[in-house]
Amino acid sequence: MKLFSFWRSLATFRVRIALNLKGLKPEVEFVDLIKGEQCSAAFASVNPLMVIPALIDGDGPPLFESLAIIEYLDECYPRPPLLPSDPKGRARVRGLSQIVACDAHPLVVPRVRNFLQHELKLDEASRMKWIHHWITEALKALEAHLSRDPRTGRFCHGDEPTMADLCVVSHAAGAKLFDCDASAFPTVARIVETCLEIPAFADAHPLRQPGAPKAA
User: Fold this and answer.
1) Please, are residues 83 and 93 in contact by the beta-carbon 8 Å criterion?
2) For the chain, counts of helices (H) and of strands (E)
């Protein structure tokens, strides 16, 4: 098994947590997003969209997109499960996950930030306003869902981590990386704090990966 990763990639953060929870230790190949290594011909042959993560598990083509990879891991390595056993529970966990992975995170990734800067000529203040807006919109939605639904427990859905927790933790990490104020979202903060007490989450954190800047 091989994971294509970069310390700052929030999508790969989600997958690293899943791998850790499953007790899987893949070979890691680093793709430096800051240097643009994802745009190389070599990596484009792995993922034509030129984004990470990507995962190779045995024979066959690489797997791509973080939620698809996480669900693949959950099907092939089912303990501990990352999706509930009931259809409505699975739908809820997938929905919470997609708020992050489909609706918010894609709007702040490097290729979008670069397009805003180089093609639309937005200055840094305008780009940060864009980033903070979409991060905050997702936090608002997550807080509303999590605080109102009795199915929320210690974690996003009940008292064991699910795929939703992987996504919420990655979103909170992104908010911190971009200095986005998340103080108005106490349920999200409580769940993130609970998750990061678990080594599988804490060890996957971007700032604990090779190549990450050292803490001040």
Assistant:
1) yes
2) 9, 4
pTM over 0.90: yes
Distance of alpha carbon 57 from its chain centroid, rounded?
20
Domains of the chain with CATH codes: 2-80 (3.40.30.10), 87-202 (1.20.1050.10)
- For residue 215, the model assigns a pLDDT of 59
Task: List, for residues 176-193, the tens digit of each pLDDT value.
Answer: 999 999 889 999 999 999
What pLDDT does residue 34 have?
Answer: 87
Q: What angle do CA 51, 11, 189 make, to 5 degrees?
A: 155
How far the first Cα of the chain sits from its last, in Å, is 34
Maximum distance among all Cα pairs of the chain, rounded to whole angstroms: 48
User: Angle 119-120-121 (CA atoms, 0-180°, nearest 5)?
Assistant: 95
For 13-46, how does the pLDDT look when each residue is reduced to its tens digit (9 = 90+)? 999 999 999 999 999 999 999 898 998 999 999 9
Coil, helix or strand for 91?
A: helix
Residues in CB range of 122: below 8 A, 6 or more apart: 116, 130
DSSP letter string, 57-70: -SSSSPEESHHHHH
